[in-house]
Amino acid sequence: MYLGKQYLSFTYEELRNLAYSMYMIQNQLTFYTAAMTNVIAYIDTAHDFVAFVEPPSTANKSINYYQLFEEIKSVLIFKFPALI
After folding, report:
1. Interior angle at CA 62, CA 59 and CA 68, nearest 5
2. pLDDT (tens digit, 9 = 90+) per residue, 15-60?
3. Contacts (Cβ under 8 Å, ≥6 apart) of 2
4. How far separated are the first and last CA of the chain, in Å rounded?
5. Is the pTM of this model over 0.70?
6. Taking the CB of residue 38, how many other CB atoms lie within 10 A of it?
7. Quick one: angle between helices 12-46 and 65-79, nearest 10?
8. Which H helix or E strand runs over 6?
9. Taking the domains of the chain in order of start, what are their residue ranges?
10. What's the pLDDT tens digit per position in 70-84?
11. DSSP 10
């Protein structure tokens, strides 16, 4: 296979690993897309609090909400230190 003027060749093992990687990326993007509305709703709720806020029981279980809360706080502290 040519990429511009450079010839590339792949072994069967390399192609199999690439195909598996694409499958995993597709699954992860599907989870992220499904969780997007839950993440947006959680951010809207949690940005007003200093302590961790439990997500609703209906929230997507694939998201680490504690880590998300810490990320929200670090961004707010960095950009708006007077708010905290």
Report:
1. 75
2. 999 999 999 999 989 988 988 988 898 888 888 888 888 988 888 8
3. 8
4. 56
5. no
6. 19
7. 70
8. strand 6-7
9. 2-83
10. 988 888 766 655 555
11. -
The secondary element (H helix, E strand) that includes residue 2 is strand 2-3
Q: Which two three-digit tokens encode residue 6? A: 């450079």
Cα 63–78–76 angle (5° rounding)? 50
| Residue 73 contacts residue 66 (beta carbons within 8 Å) | no
Residue with tokens 């992220």: 32
- H-type alpha helices, 11-64: 12-46
Structure tokens at 84: 């905290």
Q: What is the dihedral of CA 80, 74, 67, 48, to 10 degrees?
A: -20
- Asked if residue 18 lies in contact with residue 11, where contact means CB atoms within 8 angstroms, the answer is no
Q: How far apart are CA 28 and CA 34, in angstroms?
A: 10
Q: Which amino acid is at 47?
A: H
